[in-house]
């Protein structure tokens, strides 16, 4: 029922997955935000919208496949899963990178064949898992909500084994609740928090390479094209906001 959402989610997920370190979570959030932007019924997003699930799910799955591009071509993990696999390949005497296609082509063929088989096996497993996971919806909300909160607390603490992480989690949870209550979207804020650190590091690295010149960001054709696309997207959004504001003006 949502072929456009599937194609869009797959495209976004693959593109984000190719970026080193981005991962499926970021791809899912970006696809979700884009889906909401182009949806005919954006108010349903966050309230059980099937479109939102399709956008996020398609991007999540596609990003996992896209993460193999930097992992195999450059030896740079695309996400946490490929980081583990790179370690396993090194243990087997295989060095991920351009040379692996020249020095060990038979292993690459076997690896691709394993991907195909794994995806075929996931079809029946996924169908069974869907039926089992659907049972979670039958759990009463007063029971399910505390369990989710406990897992969130364990995950926050386990990142650095720092109790202060629990305080940050609580504060950010309250802030997100206030944003939701006042109609402020949470997804862009989450993306900013996740990508902010990476953005700052890459920005400073590029500035040092370019001797402080902003023109260095668009000195290469691919970078210039991406910058132009970004500018067009921003301009389109601004024009849409201006038109929407004029349409909402009351005459007289």
Account of the 3D structure:
By secondary structure, the protein is mainly alpha-helical. Among the domains are: about 100 residues, no CATH class; about 35 residues; about 35 residues. About 75% of the residues lie in helices and about 0% in strands. It contains 11 helices and no strands. The longest helix is centred in the middle third of the chain and has 29 residues. It is globular, with a radius of gyration of 22 Å. The N and C termini lie far apart (about 45 Å). The model has no long low-confidence stretch (mean pLDDT about 80).
Short description:
With 252 residues, this protein is mainly α.
Discrete helix count: 11
Radius of gyration: 22 Å
Q: Unreliable stretches, pLDDT < 50, 5 or more residues?
A: none
Distance from N terminus to C terminus (CA atoms, Å) equals: 44 Å
Find the count of extended strands (DSSP E, 2+ residues): 0
Structural class: mainly alpha
Mean pLDDT over the full residue set: 82
> Approximately what portion of the residues adopt beta-strand conformation?
under 5%
How much helical structure, as a percent, in the residues? over 70%
The ordered H/E elements are: HHHHHHHHHHH
What is the overall shape? Answer: globular
Q: How would you characterize the largest beta sheet?
A: none
């Amino acid at each position: 029922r949502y072929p456009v959402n599937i194609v869009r989610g797959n495209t976004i997920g693959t593109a984000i997955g190719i970026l080193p370190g981005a991962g499926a979570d970021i791809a899912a959030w970006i696809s979700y935000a884009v889906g909401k932007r182009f949806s005919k019924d954006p108010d349903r997003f966050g309230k059980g919208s099937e479109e939102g699930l399709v956008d996020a799910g398609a991007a999540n799955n596609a990003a996992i496949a896209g993460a193999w591009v930097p992992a195999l071509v450059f030896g740079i993990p695309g996400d946490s899963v490929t980081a583990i696999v790179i370690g396993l390949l090194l243990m087997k005497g295989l060095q991920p990178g351009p040379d692996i296609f020249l020095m060990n082509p038979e292993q690459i063929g076997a690896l691709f064949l394993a991907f195909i088989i794994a995806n075929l096996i996931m079809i029946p497993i996924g169908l069974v898992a869907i039926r089992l996971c659907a049972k979670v919806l039958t759990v009463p909300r007063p029971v399910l909500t505390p369990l989710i909160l406990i897992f969130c607390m364990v995950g926050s603490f386990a990142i650095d084994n720092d109790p202060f992480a629990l305080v940050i989690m609580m504060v950010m949870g309250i802030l997100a609740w206030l944003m939701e209550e006042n109609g402020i979207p949470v997804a862009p804020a989450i993306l900013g928090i996740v990508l902010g650190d990476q953005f700052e590091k890459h920005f400073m690295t590029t500035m040092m390479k370019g001797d402080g010149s902003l023109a260095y960001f668009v000195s290469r054709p691919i970078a210039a094209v991406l910058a132009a696309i970004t500018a067009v997207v921003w301009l389109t959004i601004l024009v849409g906001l201006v038109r929407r504001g004029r349409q909402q003006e009351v005459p007289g």
